[in-house]
Design a protein that fits this description.
single chain; 761 residues; alpha+beta; Calcium-transporting ATPase, cytoplasmic transduction domain A; Calcium-transporting ATPase, cytoplasmic domain N; 4 domains; 6-stranded antiparallel β-sheet; 22 strands
Length: 761
């Protein structure tokens, strides 16, 4: 309705201005004045209503100047100036209305795409039902081109999904059987079946829609700043106009001052810039609950981060399998995974997943017994296998060594015993997110001065993560109440943003100046308490949002400040009589339109935005990342062979060395050479610096050198194994290869693979 009213106002004011101009050219001066007076009056009435509405809400806005200018133009019979002000007022309102509608378009698209129906299987046949009727456990069909109705798990087929509505990513993402899929994304591949894990009301997309509806641009502090401008700008304008009238004895000068000081559309540029920023963050998969949160995010100087699920991936991963003397790594992992197939524990899932990734055949266990908090036991191939906490109070030297190593690495331990004898230990750790390091560097460059980790985890685990990421200060082993106090302490020092994902983070998020929730897998409590919600499980979206927030705030302040400065200059010129009311109206129209258009720049990406990866480069990154996942497990064999080198060499040592060498020359080196020829040039082009990959190339050269050295040792060895004098250098060669490859893989995954846009974490 408002839109049509503004269009009608624009038509009337422009019609009056043009009609009066035509009459004036025909010599009908009196009739022209009447037409212009009608246009002035048509603008004065709604302007007066806007002023009364603002005063009713306790706000004195710059609409007061517009009302005085229009009324003054009628009083001194400057009808042309009044008509020009009317056109200026109506066009400014139209432009601002367009700006807000254009800026909110992405937010509106979120709930317009919300799923309305689902296809549920009943008696073996899919039937269309309202999405609100979907219940936990329902089997659903998702045909090609339709929206996933609720969160669930793929049960048959492969889901190729367009997730742009949630994440902003343009390329489809593949989800195999057994993998979770979020609601609100579109099936870009063949039809698949899924099992609902939540109802529609609890689904991811419903939460995003709810958050989007809470987003309002007019609550931003930067918008209230415009009112604070008005608090001094209106009296200053009246003072200048009054002095011009008093000194010159000419009321026309006062009207001219009021005309050029009519910046109603000008200060509306501030909410336009903020709304544009909200639109940009929505495209990045970030829902900001209002302009106030966006503006505060743009002022943040301190960042407080939870660890688990925020800086780390939020699920344990096997980092090593250490066999007891007389056992092998694969044997220990295979037995443990066989038992853990029957357990729902999060550590059990990680062990089973690792065993399957390594291609191990898992036997079916019998007589499975799970003791909560202790472990699981079962009969596997005739032996009693137990997986869980250590039971024996007396510990061997080997066990004490593994415990000490786990403590140093900040790893969790799962002990595996066979017939009550320790067979080995599996070390698990919640790995640091691949994009965490890059994100923190971007946040620092965007203006974050201090990064703090606040976690309930053990100090040694937290410190190890902080060291890798370069975090300024760590507060570990903190309860939810301690977290709240820690956040409040940071708030007292500087504007603070807090990022978390768990239920225990909700109070701390509420205590921060701006709370940020990892909404993709985080709790509903944390998303409810937060001001900003990342709808995808990627922390780099926070850096995107902060860069958008800072740019939007800067443009909003710039638009208001520059516009008011130009208006003040024009007021002085008008006060001295060098700018008549009609000319002042035209000048002010130009200033207002220019500033509002400047505010719309916030819709465009800034110079510091995240690197945009082309489809070809993205495919390369995903391909080499996948190869990394396949090559990582065999890397452990390099260290195993080094550990097993004895003097004299054990039988089979030479065969093991040859097996490792074959893996290196046939699988690993071709991968590294292909990276050098295809990936590194693409990365140099993306990063704008051909020297950006030099250090990675140097690592490739070192890997080549060590593999060649290993080959020469094998050539020099006798059929029974390497010579005793070769053993020390062989160990150094193998350990060196393991260390260089492990570090090199980690560097590539953080520096390059984290730039990929189409995949999942």
């Amino acid at each position: 309705m408002r839109r049509y009213g503004l269009v009608a106002l624009l038509v009337v004011t422009i019609g009056a201005l043009l009609g009066g101009g035509a009459l004036w050219l025909l010599g009908a001066v009196a009739a022209a004045d009447i037409a212009w007076a009608v246009g002035t009056l048509a603008a004065l009435l709604p302007a007066a209503w806007w002023l009364v509405s603002a005063l009713w809400r306790g706000r004195l806005g710059v609409d007061a100047i517009a009302v005085l200018a229009l009324g003054g133009a009628l009083a001194v019979q400057e009808y042309l100036a009044g008509a020009l002000i009317g056109v200026m007022l109506s066009t400014g309102q139209i432009l601002d209305d367009y700006a807000l509608r254009r800026a909110r378009r992405d937010l509106t698209a979120l709930y317009e795409r919300a799923p309305r129906t689902a296809r549920r299987y009943e008696d073996g046949t899919p039937h269309v039902i309202p999405v609100d009727e979907v219940r936990l456990g329902d089997l659903l069909l998702v045909p090609t081109g339709e929206t996933v109705p609720v969160d669930g798990v793929v049960r048959r087929g492969v889901a190729l999904l367009d997730e742009s509505a949630l994440t902003g990513e343009s390329l489809p993402v593949e989800h195999p059987e057994g993998e979770s899929v979020p609601s609100g994304v579109v099936n870009a591949g063949g039809a698949f079946e899924m099992r609902a894990t939540v109802t529609a009301a609890e689904s991811t997309y419903t939460g995003v829609v709810r958050l989007a509806r809470e987003t309002e641009a007019d609550s931003a502090p930067i918008v209230r700043l415009a009112d604070r401008f008005a608090a001094w700008f209106v009296p200053a304008t009246l003072l200048v106009a009054g002095l011009a009238w008093l000194v010159s004895r000419d009321p026309v000068r006062a009207v001219a001052v009021l005309v050029v000081a009519t910046p109603c559309p000008l200060l509306l540029a501030a909410p336009a810039a903020i709304a544009s920023g909200l639109s940009r963050t929505a495209r990045h998969g970030v829902v900001v609950k209002g302009g106030g949160a966006l503006e505060t995010l743009g002022r943040a100087r301190t960042l407080v981060l939870d660890k688990t699920g925020t800086l780390t991936v939020g699920r344990p991963q096997v980092v090593d399998v250490v066999p007891a003397p007389g056992r092998t790594r694969d044997e220990v992992l295979r037995l443990a995974a066989a038992v853990d197939q029957m357990s729902s524990h999060v550590l059990a899932s990680a062990i089973v997943r690792t065993a399957r990734e390594r291609g191990l055949e898992l036997p079916v266990p019998g007589d499975v017994r799970e003791e909560p908090g202790s472990g699981t036991s079962a009969l596997v191939e005739g032996a009693k296998v137990r997986v869980g906490k250590a039971r024996t109070a007396s510990r061997s030297e080997w066990e004490e060594t593994q415990r000490a190593r786990a403590a140093l690495d900040g790893a969790m331990t799962v002990w595996v015993s066979v017939d009550d004898a320790v067979a080995g230990v599996i070390l698990l750790r919640d790995e640091v997110r691949g994009d965490a390091g890059r994100t923190l560097r971007r946040l620092r460059s965007a203006g974050i001065d201090r990064v703090v980790m606040l976690t309930g985890d053990r100090a040694e685990v937290a410190e190890s993560v902080a060291t890798v990421l370069g975090i300024d200060q760590v507060f570990a082993e903190r309860s939810p109440a301690d977290k709240v106090e820690g956040v409040r302490e940071e708030v007292r020092r500087a504007t603070t943003a807090m990022v978390g994902d768990g239920v225990n983070d909700a109070p701390a998020l509420a205590a921060a100046d701006v709370g940020v929730a990892m909404g993709a897998r985080g709790s509903g409590a944390s998303a409810q308490a937060a001001d900003v919600v990342l709808t995808t499980d990627r922390i780099d979206r926070l850096a995107d949002a902060m860069e958008v927030a800072r740019r939007s705030r800067r443009i909003a302040v710039q638009s208001a400040g520059v516009g008011i400065g130009l208006s003040l200059a024009a007021m002085i010129v008008a006060a001295f009589g060098f700018l008549p009311p009609a000319g002042g109206a035209l000048l002010q129209e130009g200033i207002d339109v220019a500033v509002i258009l400047n505010a719309l720049r916030a819709l465009a990406p800034g110079l510091g935005a995240r690197q945009r990866v082309s489809g070809r480069t993205d495919a390369l990154l995903r391909r080499f990342e996948s190869e990394h996942a396949e090559l990582r497990p065999p890397l452990e064999s390099i260290r195993d062979v080094a550990d097993a080198l004895t003097s004299p060499p054990a039988p089979g040592t030479l065969a093991e060395l040859r097996r490792v060498h074959d893996f290196l020359t046939e699988d690993l080196l071709p991968h590294e050479h292909d990276e050098e020829e295809r990936l590194y040039p693409a990365m140099g082009e993306l990063l704008g610096d051909s020297e950006a990959t030099v250090t990675m190339s140097r690592a490739h050269a070192e890997i080549d050198r060590l593999v060649t050295r290993l080959g020469r040792h094998i050539e020099l060895a006798e059929p029974g194994g390497p010579h005793p004098e070769q053993l020390d250098d062989l160990r150094a060669c193998l350990y060196g290869l393991y260390a260089v490859l492990t570090l090199h893989f980690a560097q590539e995954e953080e520096a390059y693979f984290s730039l990929a846009t189409s995949g999942r974490d």
